[in-house]
Design brief:
Length: 166
Amino acid sequence: MKIIKRTGWILLVILVLIQFIHPAKNIQAGVQPNHITTAYPATAAVTDILQKACYDCHSNNTVYPWYANIQPVAWWLNHHVVEGKRELNFSEFMQYRIRKQYKKLDECIDEINEGEMPLSSYTLIHKNAVLSKEQKQTLINWLEGIRQQIAATNPPDSLIIPKKHT
């Protein structure tokens, strides 16, 4: 019984101590010159969809819920945001090579069509991020419009990512 009590106290102390260790927050103030909407303006409807369903994980501006201040939840959220931004960052989109932009737009369309984005783990807590069929189509139309613009202004071979030889 003493061992269980001692272990409980140790775990409690560790839990309290880790509350003082926080990852840096993903918040960038001001105009972001490489944001996708600087080159490809979005309607109010598209902007609303992006803000509520995409930007927390795929931009340099995350809106953090209250529980993001509690460890180890903050570490888990931070990891999720870092991974999301590694995959696609709308705030840095214009820094991508044109072929990567084209491919990322295609991947976005596929993931939205397949119901993989936004993630179900995200929409479980963020009910406003659940997209209706019409919202999905609005977003897909905008993404497809950008792909068409890119295709119309670039040679076709510049849009293909070469396969890596192994």
